[in-house]
Write a structure and sequence with these properties.
The chain is 48% helix and 14% strand. It has 319 residues and is α/β, with parallel strands linked by helices. Bound molecules: the ligand C=CC1=C(C)c2cc3[nH]c(cc4nc(cc5[nH]c(cc1n2)c(C)c5CCC(=O)O)C(CCC(=O)O)=C4C)c(C)c3C=C and fe (ii) ion (2 copies). It comes from Pantoea coffeiphila.
Length: 319
């Protein structure tokens, strides 16, 4: 008889191996070659990417990575490893970490679990809100990996957890800590990573899932419509992305009387380039330059105990 041997696969996006032009180029090449991320026809995208984007973007983005890099490495990887270790400490089954792009690869993580005899895989992509550009890409990555296996594990794939009560409670506690430390701001701004508007028009329910998180959090905190706002960051390329844009909003808030803002990025399970640099450095600067007086960044849930307990709850549904 086949006996279940469960194991957990935590997945996140991935990050360069070093804050150098060559490592960033390698990472961006893999990331931006994924059709789930950029769906331009390959014959057209290949020269744009290899001749236009990579040579110019890689050295610029390497400098940005250098500004957030720690002694232990890239923040995204450092926090993801801490999450893996903290979750493993609460479980009696193996837990592995795999990244969609870069290292540790999805393959290394799945091979590690299979080598321990795991035949029931509980996959938790660490994206609270589903998007075809992230969660579906994990799905694709796994299925192409499995194409090379003779036997497949049972797979439980957690699609997202945008309005899971334990996730909302963990976010709420993080906001309350910030309010207690810095006082209640004029506005709580929740900035989510953007996607092209076209992806949503074609059926990606990502914007709805962001609103689900935002609405549940606003209700849990008892905030009115004027006390909290949702925006989208990290626009890439020329076509319209989800609006309102975080950077334009930041620049316009002081003129509307918002002088004290607290910003969180509930779409990121771990702090990373997009939160530590884009929000806490670039957007801080935009806001203060436009006449804002106080800007505080509320960290991602990272390895908060409430966050790890939420992961435990999600995983335990499938044990
Ligand atoms: C090109 C289009 C992109 C889409 C679509 C996209 C969606 C998307 N991304 C995240 C989470 C993260 N993105 C990160 C970095 C990053 N994202 C893009 C582009 C798209 N993202 C690029 C090119 C980069 C690299 C940096 C840069 O060149 O500007 C990261 C941070 C990684 C790190 O190493 O710290 C995360 C996390 C989500 C959640 C999402 C869709 C919902
Ligand atoms: Fe991104
Ligand atoms: Fe960015």
């Amino acid at each position: 008889m086949r006996q279940d041997k469960p194991g957990v696969l935590l997945v996140n996006l991935g990050t360069p191996d070093a804050p150098t032009t060559s490592a960033v180029k390698r990472y961006l090449k893999q990331f931006l070659s994924d059709k789930r991320v950029v769906d331009t026809p390959r014959w057209l995208w290949w020269p744009i990417l290899n001749i236009g984007i990579l040579p110019i973007r890689s050295p610029r983005v390497a400098k940005l990575y250098a500004s957030v890099w720690t002694d232990e490495g890239s923040p995204l990887l450092v926090f993801s490893k801490r999450q893996r270790d903290a979750l493993a400490a609460k479980l009696d089954i193996p837990v592995a970490l795999g990244m969609s792009y870069g290292n540790p690869s999805l393959k290394s993580a799945v091979d590690d679990l299979m080598a321990q005899g795991v035949n029931k895989l509980i996959v938790l992509p660490l994206y609270p809100q589903f998007s075809c550009s992230t969660v579906a890409s994990v799905w694709d990555g796994l299925s192409s990996l499995f194409a090379g296996y003779r036997s497949l594990p049972t797979v439980h794939f957690i699609r997202d957890y945008a309005d899971h009560p334990a996730y909302i409670a963990a976010l709420k506690a993080s906001v309350e800590r910030s309010f207690a430390q810095h006082g209640k701001p004029d506005l709580l701004l929740a900035s989510f990573h953007g996607i092209p508007q076209r992806f949503a028009n074609e059926g990606d329910d990502y914007p709805q899932r962001c609103h689900d998180t935002f609405d549940a959090l606003k209700t849990a905190l008892g905030l009115s419509d004027s006390e909290a706002m949702l925006t989208f960051q990290s626009r890439f390329g020329r076509e319209p992305w989800l609006t309102p844009y975080t950077d334009e909003t930041m620049q316009g808030l002081p003129a509307k009387g918002v002088k004290h803002v607290q910003v969180m990025s509930p779409g990121f399970a771990s702090d990373c380039l997009e939160t530590l640099e884009e929000i806490n450095e670039q957007n801080r600067e935009f806001f203060l330059h436009a006449g804002g007086t106080r800007f505080e960044y509320i960290p991602a849930l990272n390895d908060d105990e409430a966050h790890i307990d939420m992961m435990l709850e999600l995983v335990n549904q499938y044990r």
